[in-house]
């Protein structure tokens, strides 16, 4: 398992947290997703042999948030 922390802007409420955690958490190979709303960060533990960082970033972007 690999662990990354992404800077994500545009998240402002509980719905944002559920949106990001739900969409990223549904990806095959993602073990855990934790959104830190006040810091604008998303921690993800995933299997890089199953899912790429780019796919994770695209999934967050598709929810309407900007990934740095």
UniProtKB/TrEMBL annotation:
State the organism of origin. Answer: Perspicuibacillus lycopersici
Q: What is its main location?
A: cytoplasm
| InterPro entries the record matches | CopZ, Heavy-metal-associated_CS, HMA_Cu_ion-bd, HMA_dom, HMA_dom_sf
Q: Which GO terms describe its molecular function?
A: copper ion binding
Look up keyword Chaperone and say if it applies: yes
PROSITE patterns in alphabetical order: HMA_1, HMA_2
Question: Where in or outside the cell is it found?
Answer: Cytoplasm
Name of this chain's protein: Copper chaperone CopZ
What are the record keywords, sorted?
Answer: Chaperone, Copper, Cytoplasm, Metal-binding
Q: Which SUPFAM superfamilies match?
A: HMA, heavy metal-associated domain
Looking at the record, the residues that make up the HMA domain are: 2-68
Per the record, GO CC terms?
Answer: cytoplasm
């Amino acid at each position: 398992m690999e662990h990354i922390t992404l800077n994500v802007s545009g998240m402002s409420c509980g719905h944002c947290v559920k949106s990001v955690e739900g969409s990223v958490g549904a990806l095959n190979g993602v073990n855990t997703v934790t959104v830190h709303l006040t810091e604008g960060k998303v921690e993800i533990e995933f299997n890089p042999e199953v899912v790429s960082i780019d796919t994770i970033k695209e999934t967050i972007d598709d929810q309407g948030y900007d990934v740095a």
